[in-house]
């Protein structure tokens, strides 16, 4: 029920977005976005800047513990941007488009956290974290499957353990997997330092 309410609220916010005329900091050029959307059979676009997130937070009364935690999290963010494209057949987007996105985030302030390649299925996942004074202040997720492409950009302070709180927002269900992968990587690094195999 709570997830449905959250999805409804953020859906309403997304429909109101043109009123606020926000621009998106996604590195995907608008023409590429339009082309991908035209080729896709199903498109999800979420553009929530700081103003829109504050607007969405007003709908969470904070009486429920989960709502209060989610409200606090989104009030601290600068933006959430999601682009998800599903295609009827393979080959509807090029790997050049994917490489452009990856290269944009290969800078000193963005650090790779997860880089997964499944050769049998052709699926790839990239998760990059923007570090500011050792703290995560941004998260970029790029998931490419033969018939689906998902791009998520979260700007602002975010902790991996909080990602699950954002899963109820339309288009952000991928965050549950990222949270799980991040915890697994963290455990693996701790095991290595402790001398475990």
Number of domains: 1
The best one-word shape is globular
Given the structure, what is the number of helices?
Answer: 6
Major sheet:
6 strands, antiparallel
pLDDT average, as an integer? 74
The number of distinct β-strands equals 6
Low-confidence stretches: 1-22
Strands of the biggest beta sheet: in what spatial order?
1-2-6-5-4-3
Which structural class best describes the helix and strand composition?
alpha+beta
Helix content: 25-40%
Distance between the termini: 43 Å
Write down the secondary-structure element order: HHEHHEHEEEEH
Strand content: 25-35%
What gyration radius follows from the Cα positions, in whole Å? Answer: 17 Å
Question: Care to describe what's here?
Answer:
The longest helix is centred in the N-terminal third of the chain and has 19 residues. The chain has a 6-stranded antiparallel sheet with strand order 1-2-6-5-4-3, sandwiched between helices. By secondary structure, it is an alpha+beta fold. Strand 3 and strand 4 form a beta hairpin. It is built from 6 helices and 6 strands, in the order ααβααβαββββα. The N terminus is likely disordered.
In summary, what is this structure?
The protein is an alpha+beta fold. It has helices spanning 2-20, 30-39, 50-57, 65-76, 95-104, 175-193, and strands spanning 42-49, 79-86, 110-118, 123-132, 135-145, 148-155. The protein is globular, with a radius of gyration of 17 Å.
